[in-house]
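Morning!

This is the sequence you dropped in the shared folder:
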Amino acid sequence: MRRLTSLVAATACLSVVLVLSPGTPSVDAATCSAYRVLNSVSALSATDVWAVGYAQRVDCTTRTLIEHWTGASWSRAKSPNPAADSNLMTGVSFVSASNGWAVGFATDIPGDVSRTLIAHWNGKSWSQVQSPNRGDLDNDLQGVSALSRGDAWAVGTSAVLRNGTRCFRTLALHWDGNKWSKMPSPSPSAAQNNLIGVDMYSSTDVWTVGYRKVVGIPGVDLGPLVLHFDGVGWSEIATPKPSTSWELSDVSAVSLSDVWAVGVSGPGDGIIFHWDGSEWSQVLDPALSDLDLYGVSAVSATDVWAVGASLDGTPGILHWDGTNWISSSIPTFPSGTVLVDAGGIAADDAWVVGYNGGDVRLRWDGSTWSNT
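The structure's back. Tokens below.
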């Protein structure tokens, strides 16, 4: 979950149309090289893991990519592709073996507006589910979190025209067991507001993170955006004041008073935030500053994983043991490999996905990370 390059910021609104997930490279229609990207992972058990992303084809179109781990091997599942040009999955979340959600966005014509894309797994197949959009401009979903059969959230961004240019506001959709609906969510910036990661601890304790346009702080263009849902409505929660441009990419909750968020602080500097039940604080560790962080998964108070990559294309995984963040040894990958998302089940079972031209999948067995 997950950003490599920020949207181009402007003093007013933005002229940029496409909003990419944090682990998604720009789609280069001039190159049209075939590659695969995994953006998100959701693990139910050691024999039931799902990962989603997209595959670009040589004809310059992209198709949704959904893969399933059965305990022995990965296989590609048939998935919806409603648009003629671009279909991307950015987030996945499973409640049970017969109830899972994948979200993203689709575009019919190159350069045209994007529309929300939601698919549901019923235990046998994936099917597209009707998803709302706000207005007639871009609507992109970046993350999803499901708690039960009748309670799930999907977040992202939607565009609106102001003075002839596109501005971006937060987008929050809720599933009530029957349909997805747009829900009010704060957009504190007049120009740019993007939600990327979301995690449900309970129906009355939901977190989503991203970034917003910042004004009035010299040298700072983007700042962290954190919203909380208390069962009634979404509200913005204060975060540490940025010293450079900060973007949050993902969030994961252990309890009401133990929540982690990760992201990027300027080029090549990762940030880690922690919620203790009353406030967010920045976890400072200069030794980790060369790793941009895109995904986080909290298994317990003493078992948290964060993943990303450095500017030189070296992937990395960090682990919280309850006291310190420590770099974890991983297999050697070619330059340009990016680890995008993590999904932990237990102390001896965690998963990480990403890309390096092809899809990357790693598994933790309690002592070692290995390719699968």
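Headline: The longest strand covers residues 151-162.

More detail when I'm at my desk.
O.
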